[in-house]
Amino acid sequence: MSFPLSRCHRSPQPPLPFRPPPITTKRTPTSPFHRPKAVASVSSSSSDKSWRCLHKLLLQATAGALSFSLLASPFRSLAEAAGPPAVQIPPPPSELCHDWAEEEEVPPESITNEALVEEAWDVVNESFLGDAVSRSWSPEKWLKKKQDFLHKSIQTRSRAHNVIQKMLASLGDPYTRFLSPSEFSKMSKYDVTGIGINLREVPDDNGAVKLKVLGIILDGPAHSAGVRQGDELLSVNGVNVRGRSAFDVSSMLQGPKETFVTIEVKHGNCGPIQSIKVQRQLVARTPVFYRLEKMENGDVSVGYIHIKEFNALAKRDLVIALKHLLDSGASYVVLDLRDNLGGLVQAGIEVAKLFLKKGETVTYTVGRDPHIQKSIVADAAPFATTPLIFVVQVLVNKRTASASEIVATALHDNCKAVLVGERTYGKGLIQSVFELHDGSGVVVTIGKYVTPNHMDINGNGVEPDFPRLPALSEVRNYLSHCQTPLMG
């Protein structure tokens, strides 16, 4: 039985797929309009430490407020995946009440070229997961690099940028790289909702989550309709969104071009509540294609689902596909992740959870920062409890990467699927984006993903169970002998 990509149903079409950049964890509390002061680790003198500025980019809003960093695609630049630029202004402190749309951002303080290079060095020194990409990396060797690159005066800003590029290149990690101010701006400011806003999760005084407008496109749909920077989003089409993630609500806001969505916002921290009707502008694209196939003997129907990439629509459209296929009599499912380069990791994790029992592990994250050390588990029952959907085959090849590998190993290691095809690409690193003091930035590898069976994906890939599609009896026999890992 083969699975060409013809005669496929398309799930309903809402918003443009997006591949947000990796996010970072919060280091220090910040003033709303100033970069935080960061202290270098390891071997800096006290004078070196005094006024070194580092701002970890808060991309939870654009990336759907994930609680961990995202994988960068090995095949597309993050800047290329960005949509229209949004104006991103640091959110106001919760204790103040006035119209934050009228605030102006304070210009950044000046910084010497040498201090800028040392700032980039500090980021790597504090966060870089060297053993994930280079066994020869060590803090001592990195200190020597600092001394080599800063042994003489740096006359121009462009020269400082060149020094940072060379310094990062010496790490031997293709994913740790320098971003010019223009590249950083493109990466950090773009629309993922379809109405021209970026959302950020903000805890209130009671520990509950509320959603604030962190970035807004000037003269975009939401801005033209009356939404302002710092507004709190209360509902979408009458559905209360308090306590929901920015990722879920961004998906709720998306839809076909020129359709309308009604949102309720509270202006500022103590301003009036307003219901606003906003017209969407982005063209929706589903990544999910599916159809029902008959086996050669005609007795068994197979649901075939191809996911081209993981974007904000992947989970929703996969649920639509699964419902349709099950209602149509599918006995089991073949999930095709061939040539799926990844995309939004959180979307991949949500897809994996559809097949897992509550408490089963999706993946582990490992890094130097304690905030990166996490076990990500399914938090609800699987989409379908019928055993018919228990038997799943996942098709993979050498271009199955990043989020796709997380999905494949989550289903495989929890005995929900067999893998069929070729060894996968092997991209399991986590990058964070850091803003430097002059508006440039650095992308740094800070962690990696590990499968539920504690296998390091990066550089290794995942070996399939079968090179070709097995018979259903072989799949059942394989899964009957499968040992699941301990939960959590």
From TrEMBL:
List, alphabetically, the InterPro entries matched.
Answer: ClpP/crotonase-like_dom_sf, PDZ, PDZ_6, PDZ_sf, Peptidase_S41A, Tail-specific_protease
- Record key words, sorted: Hydrolase, Protease, Serine protease, Thylakoid
Which residue ranges does the record assign to the PDZ domain? Answer: 181-254
Q: What SMART domains does its record include?
A: PDZ, TSPc
What is the organism of origin for this protein? Elaeis guineensis var. tenera
Instruction: Describe the function of this protein.
Output: Protease involved in the C-terminal processing of the chloroplastic D1 protein of photosystem II. This proteolytic processing is necessary to allow the light-driven assembly of the tetranuclear manganese cluster, which is responsible for photosynthetic water oxidation.
- What is one Pfam family matched by this protein? PDZ_6
| Record family assignment | Belongs to the peptidase S41A family.
Q: Which GO terms describe its biological process?
A: proteolysis
Segments of skewed composition (Pro residues)? 12-23
Q: State any single GO MF term.
A: serine-type endopeptidase activity
Location in or out of the cell: Plastid, Chloroplast thylakoid lumen
> What is the protein name given in its UniProt record?
C-terminal processing peptidase
